[in-house]
Amino acid sequence: MGQTDARKGYGMPYLGELASLFTALCWASNAVLFARAGQRVGSATVNATRLAVALGVMVVLHLVLVGSLFPYAAGPARLAWLGASGLIGYALGDALLFEAYVLLGPRIAVLIYTLWPVFAALMAWACLGQSMGWPRVAAMLVTLGGIALVVAEKGRGAADRGKPRRFGLGLILALGGAGGQAVGFLFSRFGMAGGFSPISANLIRVCAGAGALWAWQLFRRELVPNFRRLRDAHAARLIALGALFGPVIGVVLSLYAINHARYLGVASTIMSLSPVMLLPFAVFVEKERVGAMAVLGTVISISGAAAMFLI
Predict the structure, then answer these.
(1) Model's pTM, two decimal places?
(2) C-alpha span between 182 and 186 (Å, rounded)
(3) In whole angstroms, how far apart are CA 62 and each of 51, 179, 187, 227, 260?
(4) Residue 92 in 3-state DSSP?
(5) pLDDT digits over 43-91, tens only?
(6) Are 140 and 304 in contact (CB under 8 A)?
(7) Quick check: helix, strand or coil at residue 271?
(8) Counting beta carbons within 10 angstroms of the beta carbon of residue 303, is it exposed (0 to 12), middle (13 to 18) or buried (19 or more)?
(9) Residue-range domain boundaries for the chain
(10) Strand, helix or coil at 298?
(11) How far is CA 168 from CA 47, 101, 172, 198, in A?
């Protein structure tokens, strides 16, 4: 994640940044789809089922584009990094985030989730010795201030009205999801060192995440009941479409962006634009009243995240 890597040439310019932009669009779409599905069948069913869909699609993609069902020659170190990334990102972090979708609604949950670049910077400072300096610390505070402005308007959302405990729990879960994304981001970068294919990397991550999640739900005797809830055909369609936009297209694009953007800070900041993309949906589709404070908070939080990486 050093500056030397970030400035490498990658042939055609701006492909990584463009991939980051489409990643943000995919993540905004999958937030809406999974939130609606979770309200019908529960977040546990969404989490288990979307990984089943993603695994099937990724195996087919890997067979068609790479020529094998699995990247058997990845090597133990690469498998360990990417497997750990999948365990933390897909099984743990996303489980927390999907429950936050149900409790908070997609716009607020995804906005809080944009803290993951801040967490990634802190982890890089603590684990890799990368000094942020006071300007970036100030930018982090600006980002947190933007989040606080949006949280202050929670009473205007139908999902939060009269249920402060649910909002508090959703806030904690969304922060946990952001932390999981940050760890997964760092581990994925380590695992993809040397130009490893993002399709192969995502297949390893999905296998690890799905295996861990299904084993846990099987141990708790929840796996079969979760899949039985797919009798709700509308929820099943929402989950399948969300899986296509999220753990398949969105994640592959994000892994591509990590290795091909000229500046990692720019790529990660563009990926965090999902809340801005969700505002028109909230206003025109959900008929949600989005106040000036929420709009201002969104702008401030995204600006703070951009400044933190670009200073």
Answers:
(1) 0.81
(2) 6
(3) 16, 29, 21, 25, 20
(4) helix
(5) 889 989 999 999 999 999 999 999 999 999 999 999 999 999 999 988 8
(6) yes
(7) helix
(8) middle
(9) 3-310
(10) helix
(11) 21, 13, 6, 36
